[in-house]
Amino acid sequence: MAPKRILFVFTSADKTLTGAQTGWYLPEAAHPYYVLAPKYDIDFAAPKGANPPVDESSVQNFKDDVGFLSDETVKQKFANAKKLSDVNVADYDAIFYVGGHGPVIDLAQDPVNAKVASEFFQAGKITSAVCHGPAALVGAKDANGDSIFKGRRATSFTNVEEEQVQKVKDIPFLVESRIVELGGKFEKAPEPWGAHVVVDGNLITGQNPASAKGIGEAIDKALSS
């Protein structure tokens, strides 16, 4: 039997609202990738396609993960990353949004992305995101036309964590606040920066970089069951 297929979605945004460099956050791609790659076929996608920008601060802060950037298989996947507009949802069993401040800038406002995320969710496929990645799901709708967060348990990078990294002015909205506004039942670790993963049906979310490996394991468990 062919292995199940997962689409990793990255931001194409390289600047925050204040002009600071941004992109996707290294451990939030590397940790779940290495949990899932041995068992699943993984493709990469981004709004603009190939070679989405990495957040340079994540490369500096997570030196143990820089091998992901030089991994030949990963480099090929980045070079061949699809544009979101070219994604065929039927080809995949799960979608996973990598965090970094970038998704709040581009994916949250992208109608193509909202359509893709909605199609995954409504098909009952794993719809997952970590840290700022859930910002990419704020436009996604369930079969009733309601937000996929409405009445469901979820997490993301918290308002307190955002304040602690002094990035509130860099993004158009706080992800935790938006999930609550959309009717989500927001959950978080007892302390900022603690690992926390929430599974509610086919919606799987992780709070922060520390949750990246755990969300990979949760996606694996969901696809294996």
UniProtKB/TrEMBL annotation:
UniProt protein name: D-lactate dehydratase
Family statement: Belongs to the peptidase C56 family. HSP31-like subfamily.
GO biological process, one term: methylglyoxal catabolic process to D-lactate via S-lactoyl-glutathione
Enzyme Commission number(s) of this protein: 4.2.1.130
CDD domains named in the record: GATase1_Hsp31_like
GO CC terms of this entry: cytoplasm
Pfam families (alphabetical): DJ-1_PfpI
Domain DJ-1/PfpI per the UniProt entry, residue ranges: 66-213
Catalyzed chemical reaction(s): methylglyoxal + H2O = (R)-lactate + H(+)
PANTHER family in the cross-refs: GLUTATHIONE-INDEPENDENT GLYOXALASE HSP31-RELATED, PROTEIN/NUCLEIC ACID DEGLYCASE DJ-1-RELATED
Membrane-traversing stretches: none
UniProt keyword Lyase present: yes
A GO molecular function held by the record: glyoxalase III activity
UniProt keywords, alphabetically: Lyase, Stress response
InterPro entries (alphabetical): Class_I_gatase-like, DJ-1/PfpI, Prot/Nucl_acid_deglycase
